[in-house]
Amino acid sequence: QEQLVESGGGLVKPEGSLRLSCAASGFTFSDYYMSWIRQPPGKGLEWISYVGGSGKTKYYADSVQGRFIVSRDNAKNSMYLQMNSLSVDDTAVYYCARGSRAVDDAFDIWGHGTVVTVSS
Amino acid sequence: DIQMTQSPSSLSASVGDRVTITCRASQSMSGYLNWYQQKPGKAPKLLIYAVSSLQSGVPSRFSGSGSGTEFTLTISGLQAEDFATYYCQQSFDTPPFTFGPGTKVDIK
Questions:
Q1: Whether pLDDT at B93 is above 80
Q2: Are residues A12 and A117 in contact, defined by beta-carbon separation less than 8 angstroms?
Q3: Which residues of chain B does A95 touch, with a Cβ-Cβ cutoff of 8 Å?
Q4: Measured between alpha carbons, how far is residue A48 from residues A53, A86, B9, B79 in Å?
Q5: Interface mutation target, options B49, B97, B104, chain A, most CBs of A under 10 Å
Q6: Which pLDDT tens digit goes with each residue over B47-87?
């Protein structure tokens, strides 16, 4: 069964850091690009980062550029999001999602999400 | 970057109704328009990709259409399990892969 499971969320103070993980199973991880997408409480979805299958190509939303770093370890079937200089505006549920060429780069598999709360 | 808008932001409907949601892009796209359904407390679920292709396992009452900058999601015969929030999203060209603001469908 194809599955993504996020972990690493929690409560962090403003200006703090946090590292999220996304563990994949049931498919050949390196064949797919991956993204992080977040959803603040009561609000819509915001795409924030992309990493290509090899890990070399990366993109970020302007809102996180320079503060967040996405990476992946294909040997461990995992993707990571290092979040630095966090602010209250980063409070959200963070989802990892698989992007598939088979569905024209749509996100066909999503994790259940991990909650990040930034508060003093 | 491509910006996405949706209308309406919310709607009330009854079981059996035909529901239409519109998504507009700030520039013309050749396909690469996707629709997701999200229920409270759950992750989004892909319904339709590439404007009109139904994702595996999604009921045929869901359909998508459109071209250029205007796209539509139609639910033909709304079911109780369809009450949710729907998002369009573009995967055209390179990221950012922006989402629309969402349309909440609730019970009339």
A1: no
A2: yes
A3: 43-44
A4: 17, 14, 23, 33
A5: B97
A6: 999 999 999 999 999 999 999 999 999 999 999 999 999 99
What are the tens digits of pLDDT across the range A44-86?
999 999 999 999 999 999 999 999 999 999 999 999 999 999 9
CB contact under 8 A, B89 and A106: yes
Closest residue to A104, CB basis, from B31, B44, B101: B31
All residues of chain A having their beta carbon less than 8 Å from the beta carbon of residue B53 are 103-104
- A90 HSE (CA, 13 A, CB side): 30
- Rounded Cα gap, residues A80 and A6, in angstroms: 9
How close B39 comes to chain A (CA, Å)?
12
| Token couple for B32 | 């690469």
A61: which chain B residues are within 8 Å (Cβ-Cβ)? 96
